[in-house]
Amino acid sequence: MRGRALAFAVALLALAAALLAGCGGERAADGDELRLGYFANVTHAVPIVAMERGIYDRELEGTKVSPQLFISGPEAVSSILAGSIDAAYVGPGPLVTALSRAPGEILVAAGANEGGATLIAARGSGIRSVADLRGRRVAIPAHGNTQDLQLHELLRRAGLKPADQGGDVTLVVVRNPLLASAITTGVVDAAMAPEPWGSVLVADGAARVVLDSDQVLDGRSPTTILVVSRALAERRPDLVRALQRANAEAVALVRRDPALAGAAFNRRLDEVSGTTLAPAVIRAAVDRQTATTRVDPAQMQIMIDAAGDAGYQARDVALDEVLPIRPSAQ
Fold it and tell me: Which SS3 state, helix, strand or coil, does residue 209 take?
């Protein structure tokens, strides 16, 4: 594995270990605590900025916000359904699949981010388009997560199918911190990568961009959505409203100054591991995403359809189930 990619993978694993060590128990939220899940990705810059700037503490006055780190969306939504956390920033993929099995148990509060995912291929692989993925192995962070569903849709549009559906594109689950190793050692030929993982590998020379973020489902695909448990919404609607206000404030900050996203991420990384991303890498990662409270209905319908086509839905999910309970746009 190349130096920069290795250092970043080790740093993110250290960050995950440090934050997971502070995770709370199984107690449901009361007036004193709200357990909030998020990922160590640049696409989760909104909650990272909100934590750093004390926005949650200010808006949720009297309620302690306990951040809890997750590696993938399916793990986060499972924790909401189990009552281990009360709210989380997740992608539309895990949300759709969770709602198909537990109707009404997770509610969308607001959007946080669009874009922020790229299709990359190993240098020398010869992959220059989605059509070139035929007969290849492509990494996804998890089955049913947002990048998985985005890839399913991209394959469908190119007339391809995953191997488990009778096609000849093999999807391989690779955790984000292990993606650099998988690409450089030839375990996979390509990957649907959330930021900053794609930008790290491109800057390191290990991969090249096949589809940039603005080419992945028109760049408007929601990547990060704030969701809450139904239990929290029914018991403490005031906390949900406060959480929505905090999210909107953090989104506005990042929209006014996108560099805040990368700077906050790098500071958190440095605190835990002593490692930061190079300025050019963090700029590239931030430039591939847009902070927004919007949850685009057309793009969410694409995610619903992709989940159905992939066989991830236990029942059909309606569009209104994955739109904000108090819609806002920015």
Answer: strand
Q: What is 10-115+221-322's CATH topology?
A: D-Maltodextrin-Binding Protein; domain 2 (3.40.190)
Backbone angles phi, psi at 293, to 5 degrees: -85, -5
Show Cβ contacts of residue 279 under 8 Å, excluding neighbours closer than 6 positions.
none
Q: Mean of the pLDDT values across residues 304-311?
A: 94
- Give the tens place of pLDDT for each residue, 208-221: 999 999 999 987 88
Q: HSE on the CB side for 248, CA within 13 Å? A: 16
Contact assessment for residue 137 and residue 131, using Cβ atoms and an 8 Å cutoff: no
Q: Provide CB contacts within 8 A for 190, sequence distance 6+.
A: 119, 120, 121, 122, 125, 127, 133, 136, 137, 138, 139, 210
Rg of the chain over Cα atoms, rounded to whole angstroms, equals 19
Per domain, the residue ranges of the chain are 10-115+221-322, 117-219
State the greatest distance between any 2 C-alpha atoms of the chain, in Å, as a whole number: 56
Q: Which residue has the tokens 């890498």?
A: 281
> What percentage of the chain reaches a pLDDT higher than 90?
75
Q: How many residues does the chain have?
A: 330
Burial class of residue 10, CB neighbours in 10 A (0-12, 13-18, 19+):
middle
Topology of the domain covering 117-219? D-Maltodextrin-Binding Protein; domain 2 (3.40.190)
Q: Which residues have C-beta within 8 Å of that of residue 215, sequence separation ≥ 6?
A: none
Tokens of 60: 């949720």
The residue behind tokens 């995950």 is 16
Q: Among all chains, which residue has been given the structure tokens 């491109």? A: 202
Cβ-based neighbour number of residue 187 at 10 Å: 15
Quick: pLDDT tens for 238-274: 999 999 999 999 999 999 999 999 999 888 778 767 7
First and final CA of the chain: distance in angstroms? 40
Q: What is the DSSP letter of 26?
A: S
φ, ψ at 38 (rounded to 5°): -160, 175
